[in-house]
Amino acid sequence: MKKILWAIVATLGITLVMAVNAMAYLDPSAMTFIIQVFAGIAITCGAAFAIYRRRIMLFFKKRFGKKNTKQTFIDDDDEEDGTEA
């Protein structure tokens, strides 16, 4: 394990020491493309959340919801004829 960790650290160290500056131009349209990628990811996550919102809410209600200790019973006989007792 120590050999693998040492190899990773050595590789990163050599990479940082031997880095060469790149004389590159970043076009404004490239930045727009990057923004569009992040916007697409955000919209996709929002749509997935909207689709599965009910399942997510039920999961959290089951997991963290309050337990209903009171039970109420409805007398079905009173509802059949429409009169109240």
Give structural notes:
It contains four helices and no strands. The chain has helices at 2-17, 28-51, 53-64, 76-81.
Could you list some keywords that capture this structure?
single chain; flat; 85 residues; mainly alpha; 68% helix; 4 helices
Helices and strands in order:
Elements (H helix, E strand, L loop, with lengths): L1 H16 L10 H24 L1 H12 L11 H6 L4
Helical percentage: 55-70%
- The count of DSSP E runs of length 2 or more, i.e. the number of strands, is 0
Element pattern in H and E: HHHH
Uncertain runs with pLDDT below 50, 5 residues or more? none
Gyration radius (Cα, Å) is 31 Å
Mean pLDDT, nearest integer?
81
Largest sheet: none
State the separation between the terminal residues, measured CA to CA.
79 Å
Short description:
This protein has 85 residues and is mainly alpha-helical. The chain has four helices and no strands.
